[in-house]
TrEMBL record, chain A:
CDD domains named in the record: IscU_like (cd06664)
Organism taxonomic ancestry: Bacteria, Bacillati, Actinomycetota, Actinomycetes, Micromonosporales
Protein name stated in the entry: Iron-sulfur cluster assembly scaffold protein
All residue ranges annotated as the NIF system FeS cluster assembly NifU N-terminal domain in the record: 5-122
Signal peptide extent: none
Annotated Pfam families: NifU_N
From TrEMBL, chain B:
Keywords from the UniProt entry: Iron, Iron-sulfur, Metal-binding, Pyridoxal phosphate, Transferase
UniProt-recorded name of the protein: Cysteine desulfurase family protein
Family in the record: Belongs to the class-V pyridoxal-phosphate-dependent aminotransferase family. NifS/IscS subfamily.
Organism whose genome encodes this protein: Micromonospora cathayae
Cofactor(s) needed for function: pyridoxal 5'-phosphate
Keyword Iron tagged: yes
SUPFAM superfamilies per UniProt: PLP-dependent transferases
InterPro entries xrefs: Aminotrans_V_dom, Cysteine_dSase, PyrdxlP-dep_Trfase, PyrdxlP-dep_Trfase_major, PyrdxlP-dep_Trfase_small
Record's keyword annotation contains Iron: yes
Catalytic reaction(s) noted: (sulfur carrier)-H + L-cysteine = (sulfur carrier)-SH + L-alanine
Residue intervals of the Aminotransferase class V domain: 22-378
Gene3D superfamilies in the record: 1.10.260.50, Aspartate Aminotransferase, domain 1, Type I PLP-dependent aspartate aminotransferase-like (Major domain)
Cited Pfam families: Aminotran_5 (PF00266)
Amino acid sequence: MARFSPTVVDHFTNPRNSGEITDADVRAFVGNPVCGDQILLTARVRDDVVTDIRFQAFGCSASLAVASLLTTAIAGTPLTDVTGLDATRVEQLAGGLAPDQRHVAALGADVARRLVDNFRQGTNDDDPITCAG
Amino acid sequence: MTTRSPVPADPRCPADDLSEFVYLDYAATTPLGREAFDAIGRGMRLFGNPSSRHSVGQAAHEALGTARAQVAALLGCPAGEVVFTGGGSEAINLALRGTFAPRHWRGHLVTTAIEHSAVLESAAALRRRGVDVTIVPPEPSGHVDPDRVAAALRPDTVLVSVMHANNETGAVQPVREITERAHAAGALMHVDAVQTAGKLPIDTLDADLVSISAHKFGGPKGVGALRLAAHHTVEPLVCGGGQEDGRRAGTENLPGVLGMAAAATAALPRLHDRSYRQQQWALRTRLLRHLGALDGVRVNATDPVMAETVSVTFAGVRGDTVADVLDMHGICVSTGSACHAGQDSPSHVLTAMGLDVEQARATLRFSFGAGTTGADIDTAGRATVAAVEQVRRVSGRSGTPLATVGTAGVR
């Protein structure tokens, strides 16, 4: 049995929207201190709709794929809908995740929720993803 | 519901059919060689029990004796010193636990921090029973200093256990010097040669106990051997019949043993073949030249090192992620660590050498063998450079220079 769904393979091998919007309206950063996975989202928001979004991700293959597919799900979406991206929905978007990859769905849901919260509260996560050096 | 077996029904020999993948994980296991493949078939037909008195059993008994002599040739010992086991881990357990059991779990064991878990877990089990254990750390180069081992020796040291070459870094350990020091102190010496059997000469090790595993040199999985010097006895781990001269009970795995013996015989000529060694070094140099195109690369062992094993740390990436990219391109390599269910532990070998957790996680191991071609190395080298660049790009991380041990591009 394949370790990854076709969707995860697709986003992992051809990531969409990677990079950083330097003059973003909102920045959301979430990291898992246990396994070290990190996702940074930067986005522009107009009339409560995400009009542009980019990601930077560090971690396992599934976390990179989830970061990419999250951006495709969030782009053009009202903020009220972004909050509905819970872990179950993220796993569905990924076409399923193996048990040892499911923590990535929670990470994706956390960063999506944080993006909305940060925008509404006018805060930004400015922690850079520091280099492993 | 029926589950489709992942085992191919096609009976072709794996070593004859490597074209589907670029397989660079020989340190984990090797493809079954043609000689072993054929010998296993013969062993399957020799259905008699080697312990039976009748002619069918005696045919199996004779085949077992021939196989024992073949494996003894690889180990450089009399056939009577070869004990067949259910793999390398069992051989190691028999060497360590079997030595201390008759001593009522008393005495002192010296081993190192870079040993395989079969040694380290056995050492931990011995410690729980009352054996004193000293773990010697490696140098940053990946090698164990014989003087540090000598300094750990005590009057009650029963056994010293050091691997011939490290499975993760390929660093070849000074086991000859360590053996001399152990013997001078009156201690026995065990060498875990699982990673080197069939690749480097092990017939001159001069150790009392030597462990090997068939699947690391073109033989089948689930069969190994322990060289047990005639002057030393161990308490068996597996009790029952008197097989293996009372040292390991259980009807012998004849197909497996014959497969291991055939693989050992096939490996013998290349052990001292200068052109074969040069070919392996050329493959190593070729791979490192490719990887040298990247910034922030560290090669995790200096000479002496097995040509066939290349451990490389790439700054700013996770090794498992790069390995997954390569896997999606049909290239099989391994990592020094893995992240499973959020409970990951970095390589104990790399961290013992002084790498931090991030560096240990940023490590890949390429290992190759007789079936590897220059084209395989070129494909893997180019794909690795592209994969590392891709993973760095999506993370926004760069190849910040790492403290260098080895240097890519230079032998």
